[in-house]
From TrEMBL:
UniProt superkingdom: Bacteria
Pfam families given in the database record: FAD_binding_3
GO molecular function: 4-hydroxybenzoate 3-monooxygenase activity
Record protein name field: 4-hydroxybenzoate 3-monooxygenase
Keyword Cytoplasm: no
Keywords: NAD, Oxidoreductase
Length: 381
């Protein structure tokens, strides 16, 4: 038997950056909401994820009074120089804060941990380990969200549902077949991503090499994430530990400290956009609506942008009975998403085509190397 669980204005499915940011913005606007997260609090606060916010993302958090979520993780473009090894030559990224100000390097789990703390401190309703979530009556004025927890089956009636449960979540699959259009771009290569129990020194270094792109980025004082460009049909089994360390040292053109490797995974690089981002009373945001090349490091920034646009739209609808922002939510977000996808494709091509010429040829390699000069400081610097 399903246990009645009351009503709220907005049910947010997913307790990642997009969902928690939206919940925090709504709560601070006086809009009741409930966040459902399928995993435990311990899991979401400790899972290792890359993290970077652009200047607009940092400004968004400050505008909503939650700048503390990134405090202590400033590391913005204005105060750190990241090395880029281009075919064995050490270069440095061109540092430009841009009109939105400096960004911040903050691991995703740290940002999530801080947003959880802020949301709960503000009195937010956050329910972990909410399993078997299903969305019903999305085309009506009173959707219902069902889920199961340790007490049994429950249901929440609401006015709106926000689907922030990631690319493999249930929210997007609740939309009828044929309604969404999926646009995708496959880059044709993958990254071997490796979590190693070795500190990164420097904290982040990237390399362009004839054997492919490489990077090592800190994940704390005793761990780092390694990225190695590889064919899309490679498997983790093709990369024994010794090969990982040998290849990293070769591409970085320097000896690298070695240590235990915890995990390995091959991730094909791609961009995906679903359109529209709204169906009835359901709005998609974050990875549930789009994926962007990890080379751009813009996933969290896009999630925050979606959350802010949707928060303003829901406030106008609920508090002012003005549906105009909600009706334009999808178009507003998609215009920004496509702008960032264009930048991500350019960046990804520049960083990968300028190294391994076997994928797109020597002509494109030389074009990419010329483009790369726009991203790095002049040699005289």
């Amino acid at each position: 038997m399903t246990q009645a669980d009351g009503k709220t204005t907005v049910v947010i499915v997913g307790g990642g950056v997009a969902g928690l940011a939206l919940g925090t913005f709504l709560l601070r606007s006086g809009i009741p909401c409930t966040v459902l997260e399928k995993n435990s609090r311990e899991y979401v606060e400790q899972r290792q994820r890359a993290g970077s916010l652009d200047g607009r993302g940092v400004r968004t958090l400050h505008d909503w009074g939650v700048g503390e979520a990134v405090e202590g993780h400033g590391g913005g473009p204005s105060d750190v120089v990241l090395p880029l090894i281009v075919h064995g030559e050490k270069r440095a990224w061109r540092m430009d804060s841009g009109e939105d100000g400096a960004g911040a390097f903050v691991p995703q789990q740290v940002l999530v941990r801080n947003l959880v703390r802020i949301f709960l401190r503000d009195g937010g309703d956050l329910r972990f380990e909410a399993a078997d979530v299903t969305l019903e009556k999305l085309g009506t004025e009173q959707p219902r969200v069902r889920y199961r927890d340790g007490e049994g089956a429950k249901a929440i009636d609401c006015a709106f549902v926000a689907g922030a449960d990631g690319f493999h979540g249930v929210s997007r699959t609740a939309i009828p077949d044929g309604f969404l259009t999926c646009h995708s771009h496959e880059f044709g290569y993958a990254w071997l991503t490796v979590m190693a129990e070795v500190p990164a020194d420097p904290l982040a270094v990237m390399a362009v090499h004839a054997r492919g792109f490489a990077a090592q980025i800190t994940r704390g004082p005793d761990a780092s994430r390694i990225y190695l460009q590889c064919p899309v049909d490679d498997t983790a089994g093709d990369w024994p530990d010794e090969r990982v360390w040998d290849e990293l040292g070769t591409r970085l053109a320097a000896p690298v400290p070695r240590g235990p490797i915890a995990t390995k995974q091959v991730v094909p690089l791609r961009g995906v956009v679903f359109s529209p981002m709204r169906y009835g009373r359901l709005c998609l945001l974050g990875d549930a609506a789009h994926l962007i090349s990890p080379m751009s490091a813009e996933g969290m920034s896009l999630a925050l942008h979606d959350a802010e646009v949707l928060a303003h739209a829901l406030v106008h609808q609920v508090a002012k009975d003005d549906p105009s922002l909600l009706e334009s939510y999808s178009d507003t977000c998609l215009a920004h998403v496509w702008e960032r996808q264009a930048s991500a494709v350019w960046m990804t091509d520049a960083m990968h085509d300028s190294g391994d010429a076997s994928y797109r040829g020597e002509f494109r390699k030389q074009v990419a190397l010329a483009n790369l000069e726009n991203l790095v400081q002049p040699r005289s610097a």
